[in-house]
Amino acid sequence: MAAGLVLCAAPVALARPAASHATTASRPASTAGRLPWLDSLKGRSRKLRARFVSPARDAGIPLLREMFGDSVLSRAGVYPVADAAERFSVITMRPFADKVQGRIGSYRIGFFPSERRAVRSAAYRNPDGFLEVTASNQDTPISENFRLRDFLTHDQASVWPKYLVLREPLVDKLELVLAELRQMGIPASRLRVMSGFRTPQYNQQGVGAGGRVQDSRHQYGDAADVYVVNGERDWMSDLNRDGRVDTGDAKVLALAAERVEQAHPDLVGGVGVYKANSAHGPFVHIDVRGTRARWGAL
User: Fold this and answer.
1) Is 4 a residue whose pLDDT tops 60?
2) In the predicted structure, residue 297 carries a pLDDT above the cut 80
3) Per-residue pLDDT tens over the stretch 205-251
4) Taking CA atoms, which of 94, 128, 179, 239 is between 20 and 30 Å from 246?
5) Concatenated DSSP letters of 128-196
């Protein structure tokens, strides 16, 4: 969650909501007199534009019902907030229990590691729920530079709605990394997410020697593989200005992530540098697992 978050309360049990497609509120909730509340949700970067709500975790927060009514905790969807200087939304998740036999509706998710064996640690417990992403809401801003669709698993292209696990601290960290690059004098038009959330069934396809790990943080919504794009080509840019695009440029991006962690220890996590291959250019893995981890040619 964003640092300084004021929407907090002890979880209160909710009855499981009826299955429904995500909705977008037709009448944005007014924040008149509540802008300090909204300001606390913008993260360290001050660029977050969404708060993800879990019915089980957040049911005890009276302000949610006061602003949006009972539907905010009973129906997955995007609930815009009015009277704010920037666009901001509350996005309600589908409960984890809505996943039945590895699916929600027609969308295949698979089984998280802790569903098949003992929980490794609290960081590897099942997610609280899933953001329901539809063809109509996929472009909802979740921060100044990122949209819901940026973090979707790269499969099941024709299946809607899709389901996404994502944590605000990851998005906050990526915004800070982009800002840090610019502060370092590095041209950085945008930070492209090559791989964000991976459903367990998708992640499993690449598990093995030299591939993905069984307990990949990508399954928990707090990891992303990213690179900087300047210009038209969807490829890592020459960040160190040596006339080449290689791991040297990825190291510049990794250094920015390192500096963000030094300034914001609450966003500590993994940073890994990866070389280019025939399918992609060099990139950097960034996560907010809660403990420091480093790998690759750093």
Assistant:
1) no
2) no
3) 966 545 677 789 999 999 999 999 999 999 999 999 999 999 999 99
4) 179
5) SEEEEE-TTTTT-BSBSS-BGGGG--SS-TT-SSEEE---HHHHHHHHHHHHHHHHTT---SEEEEEE-
Rg (CA), the chain: 19
Q: What is the mean pLDDT of the chain?
A: 88
Contacts of 59 (CB under 8 A, 6+ apart): 11, 12, 13, 14, 73
| Apex 295 CA angle, 292 and 298, nearest 5 | 105
- pLDDT for 10 equals 29
Domain boundaries, the chain: 23-166, 169-295
Distances (CA, A) of 196 to 12, 176, 192: 30, 17, 10
* Residue for token pair 């640092």: 3
pLDDT at 1 > cutoff 80: no
Q: How far is CA 62 from CA 8, 12, 71, 238, 265, in A?
A: 10, 11, 13, 49, 31
pLDDT in tens, 67-120: 888 888 889 999 998 876 789 999 999 999 999 999 999 999 999 989 988 888
Report how far Cα 49 is from the mean position of its chain's Cα atoms: 12
Cα separation of the two ends of the chain: 28
Q: How many CB atoms neighbour CB 210 within 10 A?
A: 5
Q: What is the residue type of 126? A: N
The whole-angstrom distance between residue 253's C-alpha and the CA centroid of its chain comes to 19
CATH class name, domain 169-295:
alpha beta
Question: 23 vs 50, 149, 218, CA distance in Å?
Answer: 15, 16, 26
